[in-house]
Amino acid sequence: MIYNNSSGENMRKITDLKLEGKTVIVRVDYNVPIKEGMVADDNRIKQSLETINYLIEKKCKIILLSHLGKVKTKEDLEKNTLKPVKIVLEKLLNKKILFSEELKGVEIEEKIKMLKSGDIILLENTRHMDYPDKLESNCDENLSKYWSTLGEIFIMDAFGSAHRAHASTVGIAKYLPSAAGFLVIKEIDKLKEIKNENKTLLLGGAKVSDKIGVIKNLINTANYVIIGGAMCGTFLKIKGYNVGKTFVDNEKDEYIKDLVNNYEHKIILPVDVMTENGEKSINEINDDETIYDIGTETIKIFNEYLSSAKLVLTNGTMGLYEDQKYEKGTKYTLKCLYDNDIKTIVCGGDTASAVKKFGYNFYYISTGGGASLEYLSGEKLPGLEVLGE
User: Does domain 2-182 have CATH number 3.40.50.1260?
Assistant: First the structure.
């Protein structure tokens, strides 16, 4: 049986494969924040448990692969280690797991040979293979082949890395029977709703070019596109306003002009903002000021649109929410969605972090910001495409 999703990927599901007693390589997404040597947010680890527990029930021997941050220097090798993740994973599973500091060689091969049914080994950060030659990120053929020899089946359960054609996401899958894990299946199912249903988009953050594809692909089924964060500066400038020193993304000027001209009734922009000098109307921003949040009147206007929405996709924050001076836009738009029990899908790391900071709970929080945006933009995700071959 092949799982067919709306962007054209045909991918096998984990339940389609005979797994009993097999040695299974699982690409998980443990790219989690580490602070002072401890995992600061274990959501992505928890999201992997359904697939892992299913494999334990099937008496599989389980090899877990994940990246963590970028590895460009020797210092990164020490800093970006999955050892803190092992500790959290053991607590969540209530069982001991093995860990391999090596990603290649006799040591790792011997440890895998010693695995018994239900045993788990977590390998060190796959991006350790990026220093110095970027073997992981460049999907090195020899590395991909080698990793594939460690197991009999490959399960892709790292949706947050599905848009990356790396050795651990695409390379291994070329050489082994492969399928999507439960997290990937769940992510695709939730995002399909966004594609097919009428919705309101609540977009923020800084870089407009990352979100243009989403707007372009979803504008016809979007009731409104509400734009805050630093990215509103690009739209306001296109409309002739002075945005001071606010970051402006010039890559998509012509497309943004077309959007503003053709969909002005759908695109909702701020009428006031917060700068370092306090709250300002969008007519009052000086050359030396920067937009750090949306203003009080804008929050009221945005919330009027949000409170009547049936389905909302949110990506990017309304301002510099980490700073208490500029958190109101993000805090109170999310509060509006929460208080009104609006069906909300959260896409993106910053948005998910803000949701956690303010203590809200929503219909679905995607584990993959970049992958979610590319999927919703109509792009094919290489880490999923390969599962149908």
Answer: yes
